[in-house]
Write a structure and sequence with these properties.
The protein has about 100 residues and is an alpha+beta fold. The chain has one domain. It is built from one helix and six strands. Strands 2-3-4-5-1-6 form a six-stranded antiparallel beta sheet, with helices on one face. A hairpin with a 3-residue loop joins strand 4 and strand 5. The longest helix is centred in the last third of the chain and has 16 residues. It is globular, with a radius of gyration of 13 Å.
């Protein structure tokens, strides 16, 4: 499943990438320990709580895709809200969370 965090004004703050091997720390809140699997040009995969997540940029915001594992909708929502707060701050109210899937032909 793919999710997108989109600011209605198109605003994405400058991200502070982590040290080598931990660059994705810019996406992942500090209370979520992670193992970075790969990283390339601001995007990559990390294992968080035995689930593989892919972090990337979309035309309108930030994408997060569950690559491996199963989470409940409530778990995903909690994680996405934590990411939103980590990137945009607790008080920023302009960010919307979307679920995205493939468009059928």
């Amino acid at each position: 499943m793919k999710f997108e965090l989109v600011d209605r004004q198109g605003y994405i703050p400058d991200l502070n990438y982590g040290a080598a091997g931990q660059e994705l720390a810019c996406f992942i809140p500090s209370d979520y320990p992670f193992e970075q699997v790969n990283y390339n040009n601001g995007e990559g995969e990390a294992i968080i709580d035995k689930h593989t997540w892919y972090f990337f940029f979309t035309q309108e915001g930030i994408g997060i895709k569950l690559m491996d594992g199963i989470v409940t909708l409530k778990e995903a929502e909690h994680f996405l809200h934590a990411i939103k707060s980590h990137i945009w701050g607790e008080t920023h109210q302009q960010v919307q969370i979307f679920m995205a899937g493939a468009t059928p032909n």
